[in-house]
């Protein structure tokens, strides 16, 4: 039946479509329960990564303990924050496993959006109690009654009694706390059973070592205890356990039902993987907690240091990032054009951009990223099937029987007036229409099968611009489909640049080749000699542009003998050079590698 203590614990997450106010609501809950003073609040506390704030999205799941006092007693509410972007669905799912319930925030001006549905289904799949909360009721454009109806009709959750709040102004926030206490079940589990604690997040701290965020399901955990990580089989002694207030506050013991952290001078996060179960080394549990939905990288690209000497540094940076990011994968790769680097696997394009930015900002390494690729399956004529994430490794056409590419089931919610525009976009991206449903006659849910390759570049941006920002997108992997694909190569000054090769559908190769050569012509600066830019399939050239030779030296601009000015100019030129990479005989700017992706 659970202990007296557990009656006063609730573990919950907040899920929502992006921008529906999850972080703002979390802040209000923190503020209301007095976990932080208003001054400490300043900015949204749960989004505390610098990058995250700039992009306004929640990336890493975090936790905070709220103390809520009301007439019938004092409750410990453990709030576990979850990310809202499709790239990070895996983090949502692992956070949800640590909870008994979830608040589903729906923006009263926007209603149900694609990720409202996706996150809600994810929570339902984890058997969580879902508490809908209608947010932004302070806005004049709020349509509370309609949104209640949408939630009831589309999701099938009772929503008349849902808290109707403004996370911004604080209206009715207490209703949310009451709903959490009254509707979300208390945790179960026995303190005297063998320890089972689920790691739902972790990060590397240079003083404490790996800090594992845990939900204790059974048993207790305290400093001095020898613990075993069931997947890695590693044993450590606990040095500290604690709770999030939201800073880390050490406590004597974590009991079953608790959410907190565990440290143990763990040097390597691979020993304490997210999703693993911690047990008692002396009295181990018979089996681990059911595994998480594993994060599988979907998008791969090469990352190379601009300065080849920084290869080791780049490796260390990736290792460090991996400590905090179970979904990031990398392996050594070698490119003729770019030298030593790494083939990295990401959840999606946003994830990739975030990693790139962190390498440059936090580790101060200038990098070149090559065109992202999905995982292609190549069925060889000799009967073997291989998986390709780097176009360079594609066997020659005569060795290929056929190829398959990954596809996703995409679900797009749009106001009905943009249905035509959305269908048109999906069509040009090789989409296959499945069906369309209506939400209250004003909006439509369009379901398509789309090649993953078509949506990893700029699908989302294009969708947004074609629907004036109103459409929302969610997608899930949906297997592989047979497609006729070819490798498109780019030659600079007649030399093949392996890092610019990409795999494209055969019927798109010509257009793509033309667009890429045109784009490269724009981004490659003039040099001392003429540079032909060619696109080729095998030995067949399908497009060509030329960068004309430079006529004047930069110094020619300096009249007279103003040395300091000349110096400045040379200095500036050196700065510019840093972002360049010598590829064969040609200097290629870093953004050329990304620019080729952005071509339609
Ligand atoms: N008017 C009004 N604006 C709100 C309310 N709640 C949130 N907002 C605003 O909506 C925007 C998005 O809020 P966030 O809390 O960052 O949304 P989120 O769901 O956490 O978004 P991600 O972290 O990006 O997933 C911000 O500009 C908030 O200030 C509300 O109740 N009323």
Gyration radius over CA:
27 Å
Please tally the β strands and state the result. 30
Please tell me the CATH architecture of the largest domain by its name: 3-Layer(aba) Sandwich
Major sheet size, sense and barrel closure: 8 strands, antiparallel
> What's the helical proportion of residues?
25-40%
* Small-molecule components bound: guanosine-5'-triphosphate
What topology emerges from the helices and strands here?
Blueprint (H helix, E strand, L loop, with lengths): L8 E8 L5 H11 L5 H4 L8 H6 L7 E8 L2 E9 L7 H8 L4 E7 L6 H12 L3 E7 L8 H12 L17 H11 L12 E10 L3 E10 L7 E4 L5 E3 L2 E5 L3 E4 L7 E5 L13 E4 L18 E7 L5 H14 L4 E7 L3 E8 L2 H14 L4 E3 L6 E5 L4 E4 L11 E16 L3 H10 L3 E8 L3 E9 H4 L3 H8 L5 E12 L1 E8 L2 E2 L5 E4 L3 H15 L7 E7 L2 E8 L15 H16 L1 E4 L2 E4 H6 L5
Parallel strand pairs: 1-3, 1-4, 4-5
Antiparallel strand pairs: 2-3, 6-7, 6-13, 7-12, 8-9, 8-13, 10-11, 10-12, 14-16, 14-17, 15-16, 18-19, 18-20, 20-22, 20-23, 21-22, 24-25, 24-26, 24-27, 27-28, 29-30
Helix pairs in contact: 1-7
The site of guanosine-5'-triphosphate has 20 residues, from helix 1.
Family: Belongs to the TRAFAC class translation factor GTPase superfamily. Classic translation factor GTPase family. LepA subfamily.
Keywords: Cell membrane, GTP-binding, Hydrolase, Membrane, Nucleotide-binding, Protein biosynthesis
Membrane topology: Peripheral membrane protein
What does this structure look like?
Its main location: membrane. Its EC number is 3.6.5.n1. It is an enzyme of class 3 (hydrolase). This protein has 600 residues and is of the alpha+beta class. The chain has 5 domains: 4-183, 3-Layer(aba) Sandwich (Rossmann fold); 196-280, Elongation Factor Tu (Ef-tu), domain 3; 299-370, 2-Layer Sandwich (Alpha-Beta Plaits); 377-483, Alpha-Beta Plaits; 487-598, Alpha-Beta Plaits, CATH 3.30.70. 25% of the residues lie in helices and 33% in strands. The chain contains 15 helices and 30 strands. It has an 8-stranded antiparallel β-sheet with strand order 9-8-13-6-7-12-10-11. Strands 18, 19, 20, 21, 22 and 23 form a 6-stranded antiparallel β-sheet that branches. β21 and β22 form a beta hairpin. The protein is globular and about 80 Å long. Residues 16, 18-24, 47, 56-58, 84, 135-136, 138-139, 166-168 line the site of guanosine-5'-triphosphate. Guanosine-5'-triphosphate binds next to α1.
